[in-house]
Amino acid sequence: MITLKNVEKAYKTGAGMTYVLRRISAEIKAGEFVTIMGPSGAGKTTLLSILGMLDDVWTGEYWFLDNAVHSMDRKKRSELNRKYIGFVFQSYHLLDNLTVYENLDVPLSYRDVPRKQRASLVCDVLDRFQIVGKKDLYPNQLSGGQQQLVGIARAVVGNPKLILADEPTGNLHSSQAKEIMELFKRLNDEGTTIIQVTHSELNASYGNRVIQLFDGWIAGEQKNTGEPVGVGTEPPHGR
Question: What order do you get walking across the sheet with 59-64 strand by strand?
């Protein structure tokens, strides 16, 4: 599904170039549940933004579903994003002036889905996530866990092939966090590819692979069913 080759992100500073990501090369197959971990400032959220096509100022190659993202203009990247990718954010990012139903309808309207079909898709996801009773409420009338549940429902309402989640349980109590992670696991079992950024080893245990970042480099990988492979605190020597 995803192939990255020597992806780099840098900013110009008075001292020269400051790199946020260095020579990132990785492959993620359809159906995987991958976790990106590392200390603050390691480049995790930046990498997720590039994968989600929200950031287009970087170098290297990025292939998504056989599409050369690195060769696309912003409009084509945006179209690819809307068609195939759903986002889940730590701060929910729900629109406060819209009801739950309307928040779920918004991403479908961006994709020019006909109104009747949109209504059917929204009703299906309300039922699937057991939030039919919340459809006429506004975000400020929901608990944090309920808001994040709506955020995930919004991410999946268009049946995306890929879900990107940035610290999806960071603002939740442990019981709410467990509910959200078990929901991600069910979505993955149903075939949705998931990439999450988290500091939580417990959250990482729900996936099948961990990519460790350190100072913008891939410092190693770990399969949840096996032994750590090359996991360290520094980038490999010679880079």
Answer: 16-28, 2-13, 59-64, 67-68
pLDDT digits (tens, 9 = 90+) for 29-43: 999 999 999 999 999
- CATH T-level assignment (fold) for domain 31-57+82-229: Rossmann fold (3.40.50)
User: Nearest 5°: phi and psi at 62?
Assistant: -135, 115
Q: How far apart are CA 141 and CA 101, in angstroms?
A: 13
Ranges of each domain in the chain? 31-57+82-229
pLDDT tens by residue, 200-210? 999 999 999 99
Q: What is the 3-state secondary structure (H, E, C) of the chain?
A: CEEEEEEEEEEEECCEEEEEEEEEEEEECCCCEEEEECCCCCCHHHHHHHHCCCCCCCEEEEEECCEEHHHCCHHHHHHHHHHHEEEEECCCCCCCCCCHHHHHHHHHHHCCCCHHHHHHHHHHHHHHCCCHHHCCCCHHHCCHHHHHHHHHHHHHCCCCCEEEEECCCCCCCHHHHHHHHHHHHHHHHCCCEEEEECCCHHHHCCCCEEEEEECCEEEEEEECCCCEECCCCCCCCCC
pTM: 0.88
Amino acid at site 37: M
